User: What shape does this take?
Amino acid sequence: MSLIGLVLIITTSFFFSGIVIRTKSILSGRKGPGMLQPLKDIWRLFRKGAVYSKTSSFVFRIAPSIYFSTVVMAIFLIPFDSFPGILSFRGDFVFFAYVLALGKFFMIISAMDTGSSFEGMGASREALYSMLAEPAFFILMGSFALLTGHTSFFEIFNNLRFGSYISYALGTLATFVLIIIAMIENSRMPVDDPKTHLELTMIHEVMILDNSGFDLGLILYTTNLKFAMYGALIANFHIPYGLALHYSMAVFMGIQILFAISVGIIESFMARFRMNHNPQFIFTLSSISILIFLGVLLMLGRIA
Amino acid sequence: MIFSIAVLITVVAFVLLILVKGQAKGSIALGVVLINAGLSSWIAFRTLYGDPFELSFYGGLVFGEIPIRVDSLSGWFLLMMNLTMVTGIVYGIRYMTPYNDQSSNITLHYTSYILNHIAMIGIYTLQNSLAFLCVWELMAISAFLMVIFEHSKMETLKAGINYLVQSHLCIVFLTFGFIWVSANTGSYDFKAISTYSASVIPALSFLLFGCFFIAFAFKAGFVPFHTWLPYAHPAAPAHVSGIMSGVIIKLGIFGMFRMLLLIKENHLLIGYVILIISLITGVYGVMLAIIQHNLKKLLAYHSIENIGIIGIGIGLGAIGLGLNKPYLVFTGFAGALLHTFNHSLFKSLLFYGAGTVYQATHTMNIEKLGGLIKKMPQTTTLFLIASLAISGLPPLNGFISEFFIYSGLFNGIRSDQLTHTVVIITALFSLSIIGGLAMLCFTKAFSVVFLGTERHPFHQKIHEAELFELFPKYIVAICIVAIGVFPQLFISTVAKPVSLFYSGSTFKPIQQEFIDVAQMVSLAAWGLILLSLLVLGIKKITTSARNITTAPTWACGYTVPTPRLQYTANSFVRSFRKLIRPLLIMNKKEEVIYGVFPDTIHSETHPYDKIEALLIDKPIKGIRRFMGRFKLVQNGSVQYYISYGVGFIFMTITVPFLVTVVRYVIHLLKQIGV
Assistant: This one.
C-alpha cells in the first residue's frame, strides 16, 4: 500500500513543471507550450548522444545518476496519508536530509570537475545556500518532534492535529518554510532564476552547462521529482485525518497542483534577489522555523 | 606473562632498530607494532565479548600497587587505536622511504612510534594515577619527537614546541587533579577519584571534574584549547598526522569518558557545559577549516569540528545521566564512541591521501593543485570516500554516528524543562549547520585538489602510489563502507562500553530498537547503492548505441581557456568568507596597480584564528612585556652572573640563620612577657 504515495509523487512529477510553465505563460499573456512539453523535452534528451568535456573525469559521468537515485531514495521515505513510506524508521527525516545532501555533494563536485569558472561559481553558491537552508528543516522537524513526541515522518504526520488558532498559524508557517525550502533546493525564484540567460547570475543552470544527453535529461527530471517530493511533504501536512482513500488522493493531487500554480505565480511576480542578498534571505528561514518552535512551546504550555 | 613478552620484544626491537639499515628498520617497527597491537587487541576483544580484565602488580615504593584494569571502554578504544596504528605504520614505511638515508632520524622516528603505541596502551589500561601520568608524559614526548621529524625546517620545530608546551599545560591540570585526590585519600588508584568525589560537596567535585576536563580538552582540541592542533598536524609526516588526529587526540575523549565513569556527581551540569563547549568547538572548527589553503591544516581544523560532534554526543549522554533518561545516555554515548572510531578511520584515510598528494607534488597549497584524478585515480577515489564519510553522508560510516546523535537530540527535545528544550534545539541547529559546512568544506577540498586541470605545472612526473602504499588505505576504506552499510553489526559492540554507565539491562530494549532502526538504515543504504547502479546500468544500455564525443569545456563562447581560469578554492568559499567576516582575521597583502601597463602584482591572504589571537598571542605579548622589565638582570656579563651565584649562596646561608635569630628573639620576648 505504501506504493500509492510513490505512484502519486511520480505522477505529479510528470506534469509539475508543465503546470508551472502554463501558469507563467497565462499570467504573462503568452500562449505558451503545452502541459507535457517539459516531459517531451526530457524524453528527447534521453534518446540523444552526449558530449563530455575533456577535462572531466568519471565523477562527472556518475554524478547525475547518483543525484537521481538520492532523490528517489528520499521519496521512498515520504508517507502518504495513513500509509508509511516504503522505508520508514525513527529518524528517517535525518536520512532524508542527508541523502539529499549526498546528491548535492555529487552535483557540486561534478560541476567543479569540468574546470569551468562559471560552473565553479554555481557550485560555490549551491554549496553555500544548501548549507544555509539545512538548519531551517531540522528546526522545523525538531519542533514537530517536540509537538508530537515522535521522530519519523510517518508518525509525526499521523499525530499532527490542527485544532487551535496557534496550530493553524504553525501550519501556515510550516507550509511557507517548506515552499521556500523547495524553491531554494530547486533553484527557483526568488533565489535563482531558471530562465536567466546570463551565466554569472545562475546557480543550478550554470552547474549543468556541460551536461548533455541522458545525463541532462536525468537532471531535469530529477528537478521535477524534487518538486513533487516537497509538494508531497506539504500535502501531508494538510490531508485531514481519517479521510477515505480516494478523497485523500484527490486532496493530495489538489495540493500539488496548487503548489505548482503558486510556484508559477511567485515566479511571474517576483524578481530574483541580488546574489549577495540571498544568504540573508535563506537564513531568515531559520528564524521562521524558530518562530514555529516558539509556537510549539506555546501550544505545549511551556511558555506563557 | 603477556606484558613481559611485549616489553621484551620491544626492548629487543629498539636495539635492532639501531643496528639494521634503511628499509629493514621499517619492517622491524611494523613487526613490533603488529605484535603489540595483536596482544592488546586480544585482551580488548576478551573484555568486549566477555569479562573485564584485571591485574595488579607492585610498582615499587613510589608507585605502590599499579592496577591494570581493562573494561569494555578501554577495550573499545584499544581496538580503535590499534587499527589506526597498524595502518599508520604500514603506510608510514612507504612514506618514509625517501628519507631512509637519514639513518639516525629514522631510527628515532620508529622508536618514538613504538613507544607512542605502548604509551597509549598504557593510558588505556593503567589505573594508577602516577603510572598514568608517566605513560601520558611518554606519549606526549614521543608524539613530539614524531611531529618534529623534519626538524631542519624552522616551522616544523616551532609547531612541535608549541605542541610540547600545550601538551604540558594539559599535564599540569592532570597532575593537579590527581594530587588533589591523592592528597585527600592517600591513594593513587583511580577508584579513589570515585570515592573522593562522592564524599565532597557537589561544587568541589564539579571543580575536580572541570580540572580533568580542561586537561583532556587540551589533548582533544576543544575550543579554546585547540590552538596547538592546526600547527602540529601539518608539520608532522602524513602518517603521524593521521595517527595524531585519528587516535592521539582521542585520548582526551577517552579521558572524559573515564572521568564521567569515575565522578558520578553533577552529571546534568557537566552535560550542559560539555554540550555547549562542543557546539562552539564544532561550528568554529569547521568555519576555520573552510577558509584554509593548506590541505593538512584544513584537515586539522576538521578534527576540531569532529571533536565537537563527539563532544555533543558526550554532553547529550551526560545530560541523559543527569535526567535519568537511558535513551539519551545510549544515543549520546554510543554516538560519541562510534564517531570517535569513525573519525579515526576517515581522518587517517584523508591524511594518508594528503600525504600521497604531498609526495607526488611537494606542495600542500591547494590553490596550486588540481586535476590529480587523472594521474592518481585510486588515491582520488579513496579520498572521495573519506570526504563523503566525514561530511556525514549516507551510505558511509560518518552518517551512522551522526544519526545516533540526531536521534538522541530529537528524542531528548521533549522535556518538562524549558532550558533543556532550548539547549537541545540549539544543538540541533548547530549540528545541522556543521553538516552543511562540512559539505562546503569537502566539496572545496576534494574538487580543487583532485578535479579540473592542474593549476600550476609540475616539474616532476606524477603517478599513482604503489600498491603497498594504497593497501592500508583500502583496509581503512573497507571499514568505512562496512560500518556505513552494515551498521547493525556494530551496535551491540558499541553498546558494551555504554552499558558501563547503567547497571543491569536498562539498555536492552533501546539497543534492540536501534538494531532494528540500523537494519532499516542499512536497507536504505543498500537501496541507494543498488538504485545508483541500476540507473548507471540503464544509462549504459540506452547510450551505448548513441554518439558519445568529447570536447573542451564550454566556456560560454571563449575559445582559449587556460587552467588559470578555473575557479579557485579561495573564490569557491568567497561568499561564505564574506558572511562570517566578523568572526575571522584575514591577513591580506595587496599591491596597488599602477600605470597603463602595470607590472605583475601579487596579493596574499592568510586566515588567522581569532581565538588564538585573543587567548594565546595577546597574553603571551603581555607576559613578554612584563618579563621585559627584568631584562636588566640578564645583561650578559659574566661578572653579574657570578655575583648572582654568590648572592644565592649567601642567601641560602643567611636566610635560615636569620630565621633562627628571629625565632630566638621571639622566644626571648615571650619569656620576658611571661
Q: What stands out?
A: The radius of gyration of chain A is 19 Å. Chain A has a mean pLDDT of 87. Chain A touches chain B through 87 residues (CB under 8 Å).
